[in-house]
Specification:
This protein is α+β, with helices and mostly antiparallel strands. It is about 30% helix and about 35% strand. It has one domain: Gcn5-related N-acetyltransferase (GNAT) (Aminopeptidase), CATH 3.40.630.30. Strands 1-2-3-4-5-7-6 form a seven-stranded mixed sheet, with helices on both faces. The structure holds coenzyme A (COA). The site of coenzyme A has 22 residues, from strand 4, helix 4, strand 5 and helix 5. Coenzyme A (COA) binds next to strand 4, helix 4, strand 5 and helix 5.
Length: about 170
Amino acid sequence: MPETIRIAGHTSVDASALFKLIREVYQSSPFMSEDFEEKFPSFSAFQDFLQNINKTTGAFFHVALSDDQPAAYLVIEPKQASRLKHTAWLNMGVLENHRGKGIGNMLVDAAFEKIQSENIIEIVYLMVRADNLAAVKLYKQKGFEIAAKLEKDTKIGSQYFDGILMRKFA
Ligand SMILES: CC(C)(COP(=O)(O)OP(=O)(O)OC[C@H]1O[C@@H](n2cnc3c(N)ncnc32)[C@H](O)[C@@H]1OP(=O)(O)O)[C@@H](O)C(=O)NCCC(=O)NCCS
């Protein structure tokens, strides 16, 4: 039977399951700009992050459930400065064994539906490594435009990687 994919708010999933989901995505992607442990040094740091999402106007955290199991996530975090609050960062990731099945596509569509219905966020930004071809293709397909190419944005050891700043108006 084909799997059923459904998008839900993060509160419908245990925080520990979300923590595990994000850790697995980070550990299976070479394109992230930081290690998972750097992003969330502890489970309590992750819980603080979730609380912050809950209390920030325009912020949300969507989870894609495959047959009710967390398979992917998308987070929208508005910028903090008072004059930039109409803009937000997008972050997303899909578990390795669920990539290429259209889940990323569904998550971006669901996020823009919510953003358009709330009318709080007007511009969504994201940063992606230029060699992350799957991600760049997905974002272009979803209508993100390239705002800037950032040469040597990432450095791993002595190797540099270009970054791409993309944005989409809601
Ligand atoms: C990038 C990522 C979010 C895409 O999500 P996904 O669910 O795999 O993507 P989808 O299946 O919805 O595919 C959407 C489009 O992306 C492109 N795409 C997806 N996987 C691809 C791949 N391996 N190679 C090339 N293009 C790919 C295709 O154009 C596809 O459109 P199509 O169905 O018309 O061919 C996912 O692969 C991922 O989480 N990667 C690791 C973490 C990461 O890189 N996060 C983004 C950081 S900016």
